[in-house]
Amino acid sequence: MNWQEVCEHPSLKDLPFKIELDETGKIIMCPVKIYHSFFQIRIAVILERLLQGGVALSECAIKTVKGTKVADVAWLSLPRWEQIKHEAEASIAPEICVEILSESNTQKEMAEKSILYFEAGAKEVWLCSENGEMRFFNADHELIHSEYVADFPLKIDV
User: Fold this and answer.
1) What's this model's pTM, rounded to 2 decimal places?
2) What fold, for 32-143?
3) Contact between residue 50 and residue 151 where contact means Cβ atoms under 8 Å apart
4) What is the per-residue pLDDT for 5?
């Protein structure tokens, strides 16, 4: 399957799972817990408050060389937004891609997903732990804080 087919398939609508595709078109479904939704909204709201000239998104589908990956939260500049806003999956990654970790995520999985986001054009990848601690990365290494949003908190309080 491709991402457009997934989006239009009647049996896949309204599932309580996050869906992604691997490089072979195989559907990957991941259930999420309530804290996941909480952090998604909080991070998006903070991004919109701290950054001007762009938009925050939740569940942003991104085309990668290994299938469609879905960033839990993303931030795009207005020019990038104009480029992708009518696409089923983003042909270029948002400048910031955020993953909210769950107990089922592995370091290997997050490292691979980060590489895919950077290859697709992301400037930073952020990881939010289950307790709200934030980690920030550029394509070269982990950062002390975001270079894109220096005032972003190091921890999201529940």
Assistant:
1) 0.83
2) tt1808, chain A (3.90.1570)
3) yes
4) 61
